[in-house]
Each structure stands twice: as C-alpha cells, then as structure tokens.
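>> received
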Amino acid sequence: MIYGAMKFSIGGPLKLAFRPWVEGLENIPAEGPAILASNHLSFSDSFFLPAMLDRKVTFIAKAEYFTTPGLKGRMTAAFFKGVGQLPVDRSGARGAGEAAIKSGIEVVERGELFGIYPEGTRSPDGRLYRGKPGGLARVALATGAPVIPVAMIDTEKIQPPGKVMPKLMRPGIRIGKALDFSRYAGMEHDRFVLRAVTDEVMYEIMKLSGQEYVDMYATAAKRQIAEAAKAEKEAEKAAKAALAQAAKQAAGESGHGDKERSGS
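>> returned
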C-alpha cells in the first residue's frame, strides 16, 4: 500500500514533468521473479525505472539512508522504505556484497522483481564501467531467475553535480530480452563463472545504452578522479605560493636597488 501511494505521488509527477520514453516493456514478465540489471548514471535511476513499470521493483540502498537521526532522518527512512528500497550495511571487510546477495535472494524467492546496479556505484563520467562479479551473478545463479538488462539513458543530464534545479528533459529506458544462466546452475561460488555471467550482462547493457565501456571498476575511477583533483589543487596552491614568493623577492630586490640609487 505504501509503495503504491509513493509510486502515485512520485511516479505520476515524474512521468508528467519529464515524459521519459521506454523501449522493451514487453520484456518485463507480468508475474514471477526476475532480476533487473541496470547501468547507473543518476540518483534518480531508482525512481524513473519503477515509475514506468506496473510491477514493484525492489532496489538496495545504503543503510545510512535508514539510520540517520532526527526528523529529516526519519522522513528519509520512511521515503526509501515507501519506494521499495532495502537497507544494506556497507561496513565490514566485504562491504555490501553479502548483504546485497542475501537481500536479493529473498526478494527473488518471493517471486518479485529485484533491481541491481552491477557497477556498484554511479558512473563518475557517464561511461559504463566493469560490473562487480558478486551480487548480480550470485543472486541469479542461486535462484535461477532470469536477468533482464536495462539501460538508463541521459538521466545524469537532468541534475548534474553542483546544479540545484533539475533540467526538464526526456530521459529514456531501454529494456533488453531476458538472459538465461541456468547452464551455470550450482556454480555460484565459481569466480570464473561469476565473472563470465557479469561480463555477459554488462555487454548487453552496453549494447542497449550505447555507452563507452571502461574495463575498470567505477569505484577505482572515482578514486583516480578524486586524486587527480587533489593533485591539481595542490599544484595550483604551489604555483600561487611560488608566484607570491617571486613577487616578494622581486619587490625586495626593487626596494634594495632604490636604496642603492638613493645612497649614491
């Protein structure tokens, strides 16, 4: 009931304001379990996709959204629960992996749709990054549920980093045909199989999205970008300090020369 109310109050205005287009809706089964594996461009991905489907989609979200204290924290928790998000504790050596797998299996075994982002985090630059071989593949092989590749299109352009007001434009969603991995049944702990399943799904997402593929994890790319930005700031700081020192030295030499001329 809460999900339906949230979908009506949020999904309706989203569809009215942004008019997202969808291709491949016929690939979503009318009933029964399935895993929706999508690229991840924007925070809004988890809202646009469910808004366009008749069935409930359950995604996972970091536990911090559900445990923040205060009124704002309680409202945020209620919101995420209402839109079908499941909290996942990302602490610990293995992070969200095991919690995501457990949550995904439970959702699928209830005969529902489970949504997951194989990249593990949002793309930092709009490109498609290497899928993590844990959650998606293990849930698929443990449950036997079909995997449906999904491509979100242009959602990152609606509200780029640093922009307060969203841009009214039409994002898109392409839904591919279901992938069957029953040939790997019982092999959910084989790392080579997990890698093969994940890569096959990412290849289908790449074909649907038209994104450039980068053979590295998005988390590593984000670290590189952050380190490059830090290095650039440090270089700018050093350059300003050097210029200031040079100016100070030049002023000192000029003042010394004036004194010598005045003394002569």
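>> Residues 55 and 113 are 8 Å apart (CA to CA).
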